[in-house]
Amino acid sequence: MSLTITSSVRAQRNQLLPTPAPILTRSGWSAYMAALIVVCAVVPVLNLMLPTESLFHLSDYAVGLVGKIMCYAICALAMDLIWGYTGILSLGHGLFFALGGYAMGMYLMRQIGTDGNYKSTVPDFMVFLDWKELPWHWAFSDSFIATLFLVVAVPGLVAFVFGYFAFRSRIKGVYFSIITQAMTFAAMLLFFRNETGFGGNNGFTDFKRILSIPIATPSMRMTLFVMTGVTLLGFYLFARWMVNSKFGRVLQAVRDAETRVMFSGYSPIGYKLTIWTISAMMCGVAGALYVPQVGIINPSEMSPANSIEIAIWAAVGGRASLIGPIVGAFIVNGAKSWLTVAYPEYWLYFLGALFIGVTLFLPQGIVGLVKKLKGAKHDA
User: What pLDDT shows up at residue 116?
Assistant: First the structure.
């Protein structure tokens, strides 16, 4: 009899639980596959196979620009997970992006070998500073496998340690944002120092090879582009799965009413620390993909302004939508690429006005506006 009652209660409880939403709808999967085809097939054909005089030829500059923006889009997606779905505004994600970039940059500097200006096995800036051997933290920089591990592990470890103490101390809101910005600024000042072994204010540049393959060839440039696009699409799918899971629902509950989540028997600290660390790792991967495409990494990537821009991309596109921050990264950086050439003196004014305008008139961002217009059209 008791088994029957228990089974009945369990069945009623299961009926009350929401049905897990699919990762993507049918139309969503169609758009996803279309994007994958564009990244893996259409762009390589337009860039590598069509002659430069063709109307449909995609220039190397355009490929490099889109590849760079896709790296930014990964950061914006990571920001959406921590800000849009968890309610934690970070102004330090530029640090995690730069740490991943520096990990990759160290490997690329070792790949130069004796092709540098000083024909030495140590990087040129170390020869200039009269260093005879590599510092201890360069020990595994000649291994590509170790570099891939460090690209994820270093930002993740820094984020975990910082988040552990911050979340246990119940620091939240604007105070958390200020502390993350201070952490980024302190790291930038540290990396500017020559004795740290990270190239000082010049950073790392003049890369030659990756996996012993010349980095400046069209095929390598396209390989990096495709890898960046596939990584962005993969992270988007991963983020969709995560926010639709029980873990994601708890994150959104923490965002909306953290105290009620605690009274319900959940510990918000573990959930916040987990998504904070995952978000930092995603930024590290973005930084590692960014460096070989741009050809340089220096402490300016840790500038607090860069972290603020990541938040702006998420806000402009639309928080808590996943696709919104990606759209925002493309729109803002596309406008930046044009305005900094045509009207360089007005770019910062435009960025500030855009952020204020979106905050006041489009709290749900561009994606939210599109959804509202679609809803109005459907109701009509």
Answer: 87
Do 183 and 230 sit in the same domain of this protein? yes
Provide the percentage of residues in the chain whose pLDDT is more than 70.
93
| Same domain for 100 and 33 | no
Residues belonging to the chain: 380
- In a domain, residue 353? The reply is no
Residue 123 burial (10 A CB sphere; 0-12, 13-18, 19+): buried
The domain boundary residue, chosen from 20, 43, 58: 58
- CA 268 – CA 261 distance, rounded (Å): 7
Same-domain check for residues 48 and 159: no
Question: Within this chain, do residues 156 and 124 fall inside the same structural domain, yes or no?
Answer: yes
| Domain ranges, residue 40 | 29-58
Give pLDDT tens digits for 228-285: 999 999 999 999 999 999 999 999 999 999 999 999 889 999 999 999 999 999 999 9
Tell me the CB-side half-sphere exposure of residue 319, using CA atoms within 13 A: 21
